[in-house]
Design a protein that fits this description.
The complex is a heterodimer of chains A (about 280) and B (about 200). Chain A is of the alpha+beta class. Chain A is built from eleven helices and eight strands. The chains are: A alpha+beta (about 280), B mainly alpha (about 200).
Chain lengths: ~280, ~200
Amino acid sequence: MNSPIIISIFVLSGIGILSGVILVIASKIFMVQTEPRAEEIEGLLPGANCGGCGYPGCKGLAEAIVAGNAPVTACPATKDYSAIAQVMGVTVEPVTVRKVAKLRCLGGKEETTNRFVYQGVLDCDAAQAMAGGFKGCTYGCLGLGSCAKACPFGAITMTVNGLPQVDEGLCTACGVCVNTCPRSLFALLPEGDPVTVLCQSQAKGPEVRKVCKVGCIGCGICVKNCPVSAITLNDNLAVIDPQLCTACGVCIEKCPMKTIRGTVSPARTIEATGA
Amino acid sequence: MTKLLVIAFGSIFISNFVLTRFLGICPFLGVSKKVETAVGMGFAVTFVMGLASAITYGLQKLLEHFHIEILQTLTFILVIAVLVQFVEMVIKKISPVLYQALGIYLPLITTNCAVLGVALINVKEGYNFLQAVVNGVSAALGFTMAIVLFAGIRERMAAAPVPKAFQGFPIALVTAGLVSIAFLGFNGFKLEALFAF
């Protein structure tokens, strides 16, 4: 019985069994009640942990929904809430208007001029910190792709012209790009390309013309021509009120810089011209 | 007291676990991208290493009693794994906030060779219980210091123009080597004289 092999077996088995028992007892004592519904909802969420809902990741939102602190529709990246609503035993209205991120700038490499040659880190924040950006326009897209890197769904790619392009199919309107862009050029707009002023420049007309071929010069032609008075000028920049806009397309035709773009609704064109 | 201070100073600076003994390199490189997570990892390791030093001290006495010291490594790993599991459960119950902060790193520590290393070094150096615990905690503090320092450097490096061939892990390893060389400067202290009261 005194052979080291026998003792080893006994001592080691003893330690093993003791540890096992301790862990089993501990797991009973320290058991934490987890909501099964929270895990189920977490499985239904996109799992990208984008933070668009304002909670710490998809797990945080799932717990908040179960606890009743967040509505079942709190996730901006989910398209169909019916599954989550079913878990929670409530019904939701189907979402009618889906939103997607849109860049409000048309000034790529071809359309704009630069103030100096930038050779620093290829990151928009870094470029913006360097004397306010290398671009002639201090409002336009820097084109270094920080938004493309930040997008948790891979919906943004950079074009050859140096502008981010949003894949509307992949975009979930989580809003990460909106917060990432140092010049706040992204906005969450209804999908289907609504009529929008694709410029954020508040500079005066001649200054815009100097640095960009497609920027809003604040001329006011669209304001005068809009049949429903949906456009106003704020800080040398035309702004379209989406509540009033009928997508007739008059401003798209009249804009001398071709800054206003969007899909014209055919039914409404007739309505506008008829009136 | 002098002996304890010598042990503490020694394992934090002179024979730093990461930079001089090269133990625990995996978390040192793995979770040192952000200072915040590095601090979390550091404190989790401190906690486990202090406890492991205490437990393995008793275990070693048990093994010596039965004259089966050959099983040292085996039993130490087993007990450390159990300990980490146990600690994880307790933290999950008592402090969900701390559990969230450490969550990912706690299970990782099970296979952190620095924890096993400190247990084996305690035995080799013949430390008593108090000395072993002090050695464990201070070695872990040394680990924390190293990983936080390194994370700070890596955060800066993220914005540095690193040549393409060196981007990512290569430059991290080069930097780790440079930090390690810097810590060679702590060699040669007469610690007994420094902490004699």
